[in-house]
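# step 3/5: fold
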Amino acid sequence: DYKSIPIIAVTAYSNKKDKDDFHKYGITHYMLKPFMMNDMRELIEEIFQSWIREQENKLDKKTPVGPGVFF
């Protein structure tokens, strides 16, 4: 599912219409220019942590049937 792939826009545009357009075109995150590399690192870390939590939630919802078998 491509819609779950994070896309980060690096842009100088920051008004409400631009943010709405980003979302409409599938951009999941954005950073305003200029930015510090540490800010980009933190955003990527946040995206990965969110993905990890989603995976953990999926595992929690599975019901064990036997050793290593889930439904």
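# step 4/5: annotate
The CA atoms of residues 53 and 59 lie 10 Å apart.
# step 5/5: archive (pending)
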